Amino acid sequence: MASPTPPKWADKLLNTFLPDDLAEELQGDMHEQFEVQAGELGLRKAQWLYIWEVLRFFRPYFLKRRFVEQSQYANYSHPVSIFSPIMIRNYFTIAWRNLTRSKAFSAINIFGLAIGISCFMLIAVFVYSELSYDRHVANAEQIYRVNLAVTGNGNIALYPNADYAVGDGMKNTFPEIKDFTRVSQAVDFVKYENNQFKEQHMAFAEANFMKMFSIPLLEGNIDKALVEPNSIVISKAMATKYFGDQDPVGKSLKIGTQQTEYKITGLFDKVPDNSHFHFDAFLSMSTWHITNPTWSNLGPYTYIELEKNADAKKLEAKFPQLVMKYVVPEIQKDMGISLAEAKKSVDTFRFLLQPLTELHLYGGTKYEIEPSGDIQYIYIFSALAVFILLLACVNFTNLSTAQSAKRSKEVGIRKVLGSVKKQLILQFLAESVLLTFFAMVFAYLLIFLFLPYFNQLAVKNVSFWFFLDYKVIAAIFLVSFISGIIAGIYPAFFLSSFGIIKTLKGMLFTGGKQKKPLQSSLIVFQFTVSTLLIIATIVVYQQLQHMQNKKLGYDKDQVIFMPDARVLGSNQLAFQEQLKRDNRVVSASISRMVPGNNNLNGTQIYPKNENGNGVEIHIDIFNIDYDYINTLGMKIKQGRAFSKDFSTDSSGVIINESAVRELGWKGKNPIGRSIVRSGNVEFKVLGIVQDFNYTSVKQKVAPAMMMLGRNYGGMVIKIKTADVNGFIADLKKQWDSFNPAGPMEYYFLDEKFAALYASEQRTQQIFSAFAVLAIIIASLGLFALSTFIMEQRKKEVGIRKVLGASVSGIVQLLVKDFLILVIISILIASPLAWYGMNQWLQDFAYKIDLQWWMFALAGILAIVIALLTVSFQGIKAALMNPVKSLKSE
């Protein structure tokens, strides 16, 4: 029969925390006692007593109690005592002394870690903000927006809005839809007594809109505030603008050029910052009095709320029946086509559901209420935040390792005096954690200094008080603590592993080249990230330049757009003619549609020909006058522009080259051919205008059609003068002379064009900032490692100098190994950067090609930075007096 054995995990506990010789001797005594107790008390009780003795053995201070008190281990300081309050205080006291003794080392480490922590936290705030959009809404997970996808000629056009009948029709058809609501943007003049402003952020909304989107009222009844026609609910900021300290509820505002009165029925604080819309006023949609809503066109933004257990995908699969029942008859009637042809819309006309919580990051259409974010940038910036923090930790590791030569004798003496490896590890980890907490404090200073720049760059409004919230402080504390452990764990094990004899004899660093694969790998990692960011910065900059300098198909320079020329009323034509007489004005056109605006109308068209009707496509409509094409410097490729000499031009259209291709007329003469639009209206093609980018060049030029008339609302003015400010002053005088119903508003087309690429400009700035930070941190790490290597090789350098080696030869010898590491980094970074930036460029319809020189330039920059960093230490070592380095020999 086998002899009884104590619990294995208890023995493992002793083996883990005790030196091998002590554990073996102690277990021998305890096993003997266990066998006696097993015979007298039984196995079960003996095992419990064994566990009890093991647990009692691990006391906070010294080995005590029972057999230990009388044993040869009574005076042994047990390793568990390293966790006692006294020892912990001792660790941090010694850590503080070491940090103050090496001020330069500590300052560099604190600076590097502070950069990493502050960058990490700022980006974490940005990512958190982006991911939190619309999650404040009470039933956010059950709310979806109804999108429309139209397929034509192989392309899919996605729209975030649907026609007026869609919301109500869906709710009445499908019981899983609990409710629906709609909203439509409005921009107009608002007046109260002598206060008049143009409000950019208003919307017509259903009576239940504010309730569905959890926007509470400070005053008024949320269930009734938007029920009656001509009622309006405004924000506190808007109320202050018009009424000061007065209570606005019950008063009326005059809106539009007709000065229609809207009664204020409610007051709300503001729409939350993390919402995909930000309106200052909601007007009742019942004001519209829509009597015959349709299904097949575009209208307001429509949202539906599903019942709790409803499946959105299953519901979406039922939508084709709505298309068959309502859309097909409308298309057949509207376009004058056969029922068989109209039934194709079941496949080409699709309603889609997009979750509310995904609208901000996955919206991406050019018709969004507000510019949306991009989930790709969340991934990119999250990775960058982690990389910057890791770079800082790697930098700490290299710096700490570089100090190992100075700490080696300290470690040896500590071991002679009885310190065990675990105590030394905890000592060095305590130094690391203490240093990261100093870095955390410094990180707060950096956050305070750079938060305004961050808000501007990220288009956020984060207050510094946000970082003083206890939850955020706890998060930063945790990040700092983990960073300290990660950064310090290798130096702690590395320093505590030094042998006593070698360290005390000074033999630890007497070798020549000592390969340190971990330190080399860390440098490779740092410069790989740095090179990646340099390449990314170059590519983003080149793509931005390509977009801004691309030939757009129109002239944007010194072109002024006045979006509110409609307030001139019947004087609009007179104002235009007066401008034309100014010798500084090249041309002036009446139209509210200019490149860069999203206020275009659209319709479905198809080509009418002898062989039956061709493919149906969606086309954007520009309502223009006779001077529009000349004012914007567009080029007619074929046919002619509109002319007052032809009275029939009102039934003609000018289409762009993209429309020619989409209609299937490529290689054919489109002039004189007919197209049929919604409403079964036929037009003759008069001319073909060269493709022009009327939206961002990120997007492919879509089919466009120009029509005469219905252009009332805006004015486009092409000027040619060196004194632009003087012209604007005169323009305002002319405007005021007509006593318009509103103030003059204008902007330059090139400024509007530049605003289209604000996102790309911010991306370039962010990559540039990260590249600079990564280079600084990597340089610090390289400086640290070069210091470490030079310390190891100083006697070798002394011998070489005695034997006649030159300073340049020694510097070249010392620098060579580091250059190899940087070249390895470049070779690793280049394919990674090529893949990543190639994926990023896929979002652009018109993009640059990645060129070899971009990678070469980044590599050269990395090499130059590395040379400048390492050469300093190399020259310092080469110039050192060989007597000093060899005197111990």
How would you characterize the overall build of this protein?
- With 889 residues, the protein is an alpha+beta fold.
- It has five domains: 8-79, no CATH class; 84-133 and 360-381 and 392-506, no CATH class; 161-336, no CATH class; 517-549 and 752-889, no CATH class; 559-751, no CATH class.
- 51% of the residues lie in helices and 16% in strands.
- It contains 30 helices and 22 strands.
- Strands 3-4-9-6-8-7 form a six-stranded mixed barrel. A six-stranded mixed barrel has the order 14-15-20-17-19-18. Strands 13-21-12-22 form a four-stranded antiparallel beta sheet.
- A hairpin with a 4-residue loop joins strand 7 (252-255) and strand 8.
- Helix 5 (85-101) crosses helix 17, helix 20 runs antiparallel to helix 26 and helix 26 (758-792) packs parallel to helix 29.
- The longest helix has 38 residues, at 421-458.
- The chain is globular, with a radius of gyration of 37 Å.
- The chain starts with 7 loop residues before the first helix and ends with a helix.
- Residues 59-83 and 509-515 have low confidence and may be disordered.
Largest sheet: 6 strands, mixed, barrel
Quaternary form: single chain
Strand line-up of the largest beta sheet:
3-4-9-6-8-7
Going by helix content, strand content and strand pairing, the class is alpha+beta
Mean pLDDT: 81
Low-confidence stretches: 59-83, 509-515
Q: Write down the Rg.
A: 37 Å
Strand content: 15-25%
In total, the number of strands is 22
Fraction of residues in helices?
40-55%
Helical segment count: 30
Total individual domains: 5
End-to-end C-alpha gap: 65 Å
Per the principal axes of the C-alpha atoms, what is the gross shape?
A: globular
